[in-house]
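Predict structure. Chain length: 327.
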Amino acid sequence: MTQQSTAALTGQVSTAGTSAAGGAAAAPPSTRAPGRAPGGRRLASLGRALLSPAATALAPLGLILAAFFILPLVSMAILAFTVETSRTESHLGFGNFAGLSSSHGRALMNSVLVSGVGSLIAAIVGALTALCIAQIRSKRLDSITAVFSSVLANDGGAPLAFSFIVTLGNTGIVFTALGLDRLGFSLYTWQGLVAMYQAFLIPTMIMVTLPTFAGLRREWSEANTSLGGTGWTFWRRVGFPVAWPSLLGGWVLLFGSAYATHASAAVLMGAGGFQLIPLNIAAQLSSGTGRGGEASAMALGVSMIVIAIATLVLFSRLQRRSAKWLS
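Prediction complete.
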C-alpha cells in the first residue's frame, strides 16, 4: 500500500513536472503572441538595411541620383502637365501636349525619318559584321571587338560632328576626293545626319548582336547538316528564330539612340537648320519666350522620356527571350 501510494505520488509529481516543463516551453509563444505585426518587422528590417555599411557607402550615389535625375524628372513632369490659363491661374491637364503635333509636327516627322532610316541601315550592317566576326570563332577577336564597339558606341557629340565636317563637309577631304557634289550629296541634310549617325549606331549593333551570333552552337549546324539540311535551312529553321529577338531588340535600341541624339545634330545643323525634336527642345528653352515655351519644351521632354522607357523595356524583354536559347 505504501509502495503503491509512493508510486502514485511519484507519477503525479512527474506528470506535474512534465506539464510544468511543457508550460514553460510553451510560455514564450504565448507571451510573444501580441508582439510585433508583420509590418513592424518589415520596418525594422528596412531600418537595419538603411543603417548598414552598404547603404552608407551608396548614400552619395543616391544623393547624386536624387539631385540630378529624379528631381529634374519630377520638375519636368510638373511643368509639362501644368497649363496656365492666365498669369495667376493654372491647372493640371494635357493642354501643353495638345499643340505638339501642329507646332512640332515637322520636327517629329524628321526625327522619325532620320531615326528609322539610320537605325535600319546600322542594324543591317552591324548584324552582318557581327555575324562575320562570330564565324571566325576567336575569343580574342570577340574581346577586341567588344572593347572597340563599346568605345565607338559612346563616341558622339561635338567631336564626331567636327570630324564629319572635316571629311564629308562641302570642303572636306573625302567629299572633294570622291566628287560627292556631283552625286548631290550634302552632309547638311537628313542624309548627312543618317551617315553621321552610323559612326555610333553600327558599333552599338555589333556590341548587341555579337554575343547572340557567337552563342549559336556548332552542334546545331552539324545536326542540320547530318539531317540533309542546307545553310539556308539552318538559318531559316534554327539560326534566325534564335537570333531575331536580339536583332529586333538591337534595332529598337538604335532607333531610340538616334531619336534622342542632340549634340552631334546641333553642331552639324546649327540652330534652326533642320528641325528635330531634341533641337526644338533646346530652341524652346533658349529662346526666352517665357513660360509658354518652357512648358512646350517640357512636354516634348516628357514625350521623349516615354519613348526612351518604352525602348528600354522592349529591348530588355527581347534580350531575355533571346538569352533563353543561348544560356
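Summary: The two ends are 81 Å apart (CA to CA).
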